[in-house]
Amino acid sequence: MTHNDNPTGEAPGATAHHADPFDSDRRETEPNMIESEERFRLMADSAPVLIWITGPNRDYLWFNRMWLDFTGRALDDELGSGWISGVHRDDLPACINAHAAAFRSRHPFTVEYRLRSRDGHFHHMLAHGTPRISPLGRFLGYIGTCIDISERKKMEDALQHSREMLRHLVSHQERVREDERKRIARELHDDLGQNLLALRIDVAMLHERTRVHPRLNERVSLALSHIDSTMKAVRAAINNLRPTVLDLGLNAAIDWQVKDFQRRSGISCELTMEDDIVLDDDRATALFRILQESLNNVLRHAQANRVRIALTTAGEKLYMQVADNGIGIFPDSRRKANSFGLVGIEERIIALGGELDIQSNASNGTALTVSIPLDAGCRPASF
Ligand SMILES: Nc1ncnc2c1ncn2[C@@H]1O[C@H](COP(=O)(O)OP(=O)(O)O)[C@@H](O)[C@H]1O
Ligand SMILES: [Mg+2]
């Protein structure tokens, strides 16, 4: 069969049961193109990558040797849309949609799908198609490659898994830490606090009764003031461990913390929040600790003289924003090697099903916003 008497325009050597992948329109073909096509096939067949060619209407016209070796199927079985039977069922809709969109737009396209190999296992493939345009500008279909990215996928999955484990670990550790703090605070209060109180009552009585012995009375008075300052220190330690105000609800706890911060730092604070937000203890404590870390960051890093704190609900979410008018976060500072404040906030909030957003620049300062979903355990009481 010669080129001229071939009504389908098939290239020499092409089998009669499928169309020639390269054209198509033989009138546009330069005489030496057929030779270069043959050279291309030879090269493509020995290339260590899966190669395919389609016609203008989504029919696959040709696959290289590597493809056929990979799938273990005959060329005839793969042609047209036969190859699709090797695509994993779950990936089929996305794969078909990507093809349909590409053939409409005629732009290069990329799609990932799992393809069954000859041993029956599915491999993750990254397919990339480039439009074939004839010398006269006619769209002839696509030529493309598939790269086996299973190893990369495996590594991505492992990374994802380890991130999730890390997140669980962080939230578990936080819970353990909070429980421990609560327990120590309770012990300090119940044992040390109560004993100190009893001691104080006795020493106060002693103080009364030793008035007739001025020097002894003076010593007792000194002991009394030592007991008082020890009680104060114990109360402060209890409060540091777990602010008792947390037991009065989130609103009271946030209000207390903001006032305390303003008093300690001298930075002017503006607090707005919806009334009577009811949260389960885990979430309330998390928000409280996140505010604590954010305000500490403002004090340590921002050089701000004003900070706005807002708690609002919108949709099914509760938002807490801490916005300062400081110098902003320098690029790359967020992920300093030994800084775990912001990372901790992010992990903690993601573990609660929420999100963290940080907007920062040198002229407006930093606005840190966390959101957590409002669900049955977490919503304003008025809902
Ligand atoms: N409000 C802020 N204003 C300016 N810089 C900030 C602010 N918050 C955080 N940063 C920057 O981000 C870095 C990381 O913060 P963080 O993770 O809390 O760690 P740490 O406070 O221990 O350094 C800080 O070292 C600081 O450079
Ligand atoms: Mg910090």
Subunit arrangement of the protein: single chain
**Total beta-strand segments:** 12
Task: Return the average pLDDT rounded to an integer.
Answer: 87
Overall number of structural domains: 3
- At the third CATH level, what is the topology name of the largest domain? Heat Shock Protein 90
Going by CATH, the homologous superfamily of the largest domain would be: Histidine kinase-like ATPase, C-terminal domain
Which percent band covers the strand fraction? 15-25%
Distance between the termini: 82 Å
Unique bound compounds: adenosine-5'-diphosphate, magnesium ion
Unreliable spans: 1-18, 377-383
Q: Which class best fits the helix and strand makeup?
A: alpha+beta
Order of helices and strands: HEEHHHEEEHHHEEHEEHEEE
What percent of residues adopt helix (DSSP H or I)? 40-55%
Main sheet makeup: 5 strands, antiparallel
Q: Going across the major beta sheet, what is the strand order? A: 2-1-5-4-3
Number of helical stretches of at least 4 residues: 9
**Molecular shape:** elongated
CATH class of the largest domain: Alpha Beta
Q: Round the Cα radius of gyration to an integer and report it.
A: 36 Å
- Mind telling me which CATH architecture of the largest domain this is? 2-Layer Sandwich
Describe this structure in words.
The structure is a single chain. It is elongated and about 125 Å long. The longest helix has 60 residues, at 150-209. It is built from nine helices and twelve strands. Mean pLDDT is 87; it is low at 1-18 and 377-383. It folds into three domains: 26-148, PAS domain (Beta-Lactamase, 2-Layer Sandwich); 157-241; 244-380, Histidine kinase-like ATPase, C-terminal domain (Heat Shock Protein 90, 2-Layer Sandwich). The chain has helices spanning 33-46, 65-71, 75-78, 92-105, 150-209, 214-241, 250-265, 281-302, 341-351, and strands at 50-54, 60-63, 109-116, 122-133, 139-148, 268-273, 277-279, 306-314, 317-324, 355-361, 365-373, 378-380. Helices cover 46% and strands 22% of the residues. By secondary structure, the chain is α+β, with helices and mostly antiparallel strands. α5 (150-209) runs antiparallel to α6 (214-241). The structure holds adenosine-5'-diphosphate and magnesium ion. Magnesium ion is lined by residues 293, 296-297, 341.
